[in-house]
Amino acid sequence: MKSRLIIPALLTLSMLSVGSIVQADDEMKWTTAELNGTSYYGLNLLRTFYKLSPADTKKGSKEYVIRNSAFSLGLTPGSREATISGYRVQLTAPAVKNEAGEMMISTTDFVKLIDPILRPTYIAERRDIQTVVIDPGHGGTDAGNKSTHIQESTYTLTLARELEAELKKRGFNVVLTRNGNHDMSDTERVHVADSTRNALFVSLHLNSGRSDVYGPETYTIAPADEHKRAMEGNRMDTANAALAFAVQSHMIAATKAPDRGCRRAHYSLLNTINCPAIMVMVGYATNEKEAALLMTEAYRTELVKGLANGITTFKTAIRPGATITVPAPPRVAEPPPTATQPVAKPAAPEKKKQATATTKKKGSGSADKNKRSSSGNKRSSSSKKR
Ligand SMILES: [Zn+2]
Question: Which domains are delineated in the chain?
Answer without folding.
Answer: 3-118 (3.30.457.10), 131-340 (3.40.630.40)
